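Annotated sample (chain length 208).
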Amino acid sequence: MELTVKNIKGSDTKKKVNLSDSIFGIEPNDHAIYLDVKQYLANQRQGTSKAKERAEVTGSTKKIKKQKGTGTARAGSIKSPVFKGGGTIFGPRPRNYSFKLNKKLKALARKSALSYKAKNGGLSIIEDFTFDAPKTKEFKSILENLKVNDKKSLIVLSDLNKNIYLSSRNLKNTKVVTASGLSTYDLMNASNILLSEGSLESIQTLLS
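Output written by the structure step:
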């Protein structure tokens, strides 16, 4: 697949790039995408929720009433879950939600996501650019020039650029990542993927 490189003014340049069919033209594997996105979301969970169970609630162990003759059910402890202030039955406990995935499967998931975007026309190549200082207004004008300002956009750079990152941080529908930090979740969550020329080389090196 061949794409024309665009500049930050939104105009086509004379440069064209060939996308590797082994990365941007494979038959997408939906299950691989599902597993990788599931792992990403699971890793975001803190797993710190905790409820006190019967043994952890503070309260007297004295029998609260006589066993017979009350006309109601027997009750042996104020810490029983049936009473207000008692322990919680099967409450949440701290746990780790993360799980392992093989590197090859994660690579397949990213290739599948990139292939989907390339096939659906949601992938663009832009010239490498930089800012001398954080300028959200200038960054927003670039998105308007590329006609992606009203959609969820993912901009992939070859290396971390602090000024570009700070310029995009306040924009709700835009995210800036590096090629090495590219995730399947970010790819599938965005409507438009903007790859810088430098990041394209990095992605093809990482996933080849």
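Annotation: The helical segments are 21-24, 30-44, 103-119, 136-145, 162-168, 184-189, 197-207.
Annotation: Residues 6 and 12 are 5 Å apart (CA to CA).
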